[in-house]
Amino acid sequence: MLSEAPLVEEALPSSEFYPVSIDWMRRTLSFVRIKRDTYNTAAFLVPRHVDMGKKLFTFNMDDLLLYARRNPWPKVRTHYVLISAFCCSTLLARYIDQLGIALVLKEPGIIAQLGMMKHAHSDLTADLEDSEWMEVVTLSLSLMSRVFPTQSSVIVKPSDIGNLLAEELLMHDVRSRVLILSVPIRTFVLSVLKSPGRRDWTRARARYWQKNVVPTLGLKHVDLRRLNDARKSAYIWLVTNCLWLSARQDRNAGRVLIMNGDLISSNPSFALRTLMDFFNIDVDNDDIKRAVESDASSHHSKRPAEKYSAERRSLDLSEWERSYGEEASEAIEWASALASSIGLQIGDGPVVGLSKPNAI
Questions:
Q1: Mean pLDDT score across all residues of the chain
Q2: CB under 8 Å to 49, separation ≥6 — which residues?
Q3: Percentage of residues in the chain with pLDDT exceeding 70?
Q4: Would you say the C-alpha torsion 118, 120, 124, 127 has a positive or negative sign?
Q5: Mean pLDDT over residues 290-298, rounded?
Q6: Residue 127 has pLDDT above 60, yes or no
Q7: Is a pLDDT exceeding 50 seen at residue 356?
């Protein structure tokens, strides 16, 4: 029986103890204790989106690293879904939850935090040596590989900040595979322009990318102050694609699949069948049909009380096109020139250039 304040050896191997934050200044890692149902019902596994209780269990990082080195626990095969944002990834996660064959981690904050730490240029990580960094990454990703009984694999869907760790995710475990889930740039731009909330998100994300990441991508000369929301959204789409380039190299052939997020809405059965086969997860077509037709999967991904469907999404896209199509076209023309300046090409697909046979 677990104690009220768990010991390291109780918390580390158990998926009930979910890591939520790293404090490198204090060299601590904090957990909450959540039930299996919370994993299944939460749209995002971060405290601000779901009730994770009021107790925070904090451990010294060095104690955790020492225990993990001396007492490795069983780790199941873990796969990752890297996203562009606004690409039906929440709907995909809901479908996989309905299958019940894998533990789905939806936008775990610790992966985003690791990505931020990797690219931070501040006192927070100034004393973080490469060897220590890799130990922290290894421990954190190992914590993503714990399951409940009857589950034999984990599928992790980080937020778009998780794209900063694309290379580390593939290096951590040779068994892991990565789905890159994105939408064409036009769909992305229109999806931003239709919503004041998404416009706000886009402005903030563009500032973050420019400050912390862009200087290494050849896009430092872009002046965000001169960009409207359409261009900023196109800029974010391009930056995200740049972050995927290392994962898309030939050395990762067979381990990375590119999928158009529109497929999740328009043909979910085919998308799920393709993804499960790619991840080598056994699932019957009847179970896929049940998941796709379930009531939980027929509602809006961000607003569960609202009914949503592929037909509704198509109508929405047509409406966005009528309202913002001209603005989107101008932004895409600008982004295409920007992409060309760094040797990339924007087409009609969900990713830039470098089209490979493993893209659908």
A1: 89
A2: 42, 43
A3: 91
A4: positive
A5: 82
A6: no
A7: no
What's the pLDDT band for 301 if we cut at 50, 70, 90? low
- Strand pairing class (17-23; 28-33): antiparallel
* SS3 track for the chain: CCCCCCCHHHHCCCCCEEEEEEECCCCEEEEEECCHHHHHHCCCCCCCCCCCCCCCEEEEHHHHHHHHHHCCCCCCEEEEEEECCCCCHHHHHHHHHHHCCCEEEECCHHHHHHHHHHHCCCCCCCCCCHHHHHHHHHHHHHHHHCCCCCCCEEEEECCHHHHHHHHHHHHHCCCCCEEEEECCHHHHHHHHHCCHHHHHHHHHHHHHHHHHCHHHCCCCCCCHHHCCHHHHHHHHHHHHHHHHCCCCCHHHCCCEEEEECHHHHHCHHHHHHHHHHHCCCCCCHHHHHHHHHCHHHHECCCCCCCECCHHHHHHHHHHHHHHHHHHHHHHHHHHHHHHHHCCCCCCCCCCCCCCCCCEC
Long-range contacts of 31-36 (CB under 8 A, 24+ apart): 31/56, 31/57, 31/58, 31/59, 32/56, 32/57, 33/6, 33/57, 36/148
Dig out the tokens for 335 from the structure: 């982004």
